[in-house]
Design brief:
This protein is of the alpha+beta class and about 300 residues long. It has 12 helices and 7 strands. About 60% of the residues lie in helices and about 10% in strands.
Length: about 300
């Protein structure tokens, strides 16, 4: 995919974000408060170009620019699969287009929460911690998947939750199959491993939802597009999941899982197909239980909720 095609894809995305903004504002959490103002503040056509540093995007008066190197890195695993004839050219083109849109929406999510300058990201990691950055990345991933899935539905004139779940699952698989090998989740960066394990857990829930017919969730169950960030103690086989719906809620406190399964899921993130990681995540979730609001789960006709204060 040449540079001009990448730029044109970015600008087509910008036009669709603006054109579908009213509809996106109704179904995507925080779109109207975060994305709509950015689209107004930076109305000039998006640019994708070479940067002199490693920042993912830059802001200048009324314009957003994105790093061509990041796009190329995201495209590299797709290009390799196509070259090895493991993916037909037309499917590879679709994957590259999705990757461009995901990267841009992901970075716009960071911009919307104030992470703008590259050196500020490094300061954020030092002062606040890498897990806080991991959570922000996971939320940005989920937001990109949500927005891009809805755009694909609108372009295809589709409706309905099952279609949304299918499109969302496709978006997450593009992240797992191509963003993971492109950007990595090495053993010394646990927050990145937790981020991609969280995406696999989201995919596993979507698979279960679609296999049930895509028609229902329990009243207390988290929505199917809820971002999940698992904190893990691999050696002890302990998992604590933060669900952002949209504020952080905790699924219970901690869950004990098969330590060997958890280790396999984390250690093999970059070694196996994402579908296998999703299967590992599915097994872990089966051990943890249904992801649902602890407060709503506790409700029964005779139950009471005790509020923690202080």
């Amino acid at each position: 995919m040449n540079t001009q095609d990448i730029v044109e894809s970015a600008r087509a995305l910008q036009a669709d974000l603006i054109g579908f903004s009213p509809r996106l504002s109704r179904v995507v959490p925080d779109f109207s408060s975060r994305f709509a103002p950015l689209l107004k503040a930076y109305p000039r056509p998006f640019l994708v170009k070479k940067f002199k540093n490693d920042s993912a995007f830059t802001v200048t008066p009324r314009q957003l620019s994105f790093n061509l190197a990041s796009v190329r890195l995201f495209h590299e695993p797709i290009d390799k699969m196509e070259h090895r004839k493991l993916m037909p050219p037309d499917i590879a083109d679709i994957a590259r287009h999705i990757a461009i849109e995901q990267l841009i929406v992901h970075e716009m999510t960071h911009l919307s929460v104030g992470l703008i300058r590259f050196d500020e990201v490094q300061t954020f990691k030092r002062l606040v911690g890498v897990n806080a950055l991991g959570e922000l990345d996971l939320i940005a991933d989920a937001t990109a998947a949500r927005v891009c899935a809805r755009l694909e539905m609108y372009r295809a004139q589709e409706k309905g939750t099952p279609n949304y779940a299918s499109r969302l699952l496709q978006q997450i698989y593009v992240m797992g199959d191509f963003a993971l090998p492109a950007f990595g989740a090495p053993p010394d960066k646990l927050h990145k491993r937790q981020r991609f394990l969280g995406l696999a857990m989201m995919a596993a829930r979507l698979h279960d939802f679609l296999e049930r017919g895509g028609r229902y969730l329990a009243a207390s169950e988290y929505p199917i597009d809820t971002p999940l960030y698992p904190y893990v103690d691999i050696d002890a086989g302990v998992v604590m999941i933060s669900a952002f719906n949209p504020d952080r809620t905790l699924w219970g406190t901690t869950a004990n899982v098969d330590a060997s399964l958890l280790k396999t899921a984390c250690d093999n993130l970059e070694k196996v197909a994402f579908a296998e990681t999703v299967n590992h995540a599915r097994q872990l979730l089966n051990q943890i239980g249904v992801l649902q609001s602890p407060a709503l789960q506790a409700l029964s006709p005779n139950s009471k909720i005790e509020l923690a204060v202080g």
